[in-house]
Amino acid sequence: MSAATKKRIEPSFERIATAGLLAWLVPGLGHVYLGEKKRGLILMIVIAATFWGGVAVAGVQSSVQPNTRRAWFVGQICAGSHTLAALGWGKLRAKSHPDERAGFAEEDTAIIFTGVAGMLNVLIILDVLALSDPNYVRRSGAPPPQTQSPTSQGSP
Question: Which residues, other chains included, contact 53 with Cβ-Cβ below 8 Å and sequence gap of 6+?
Answer without folding.
Answer: 113
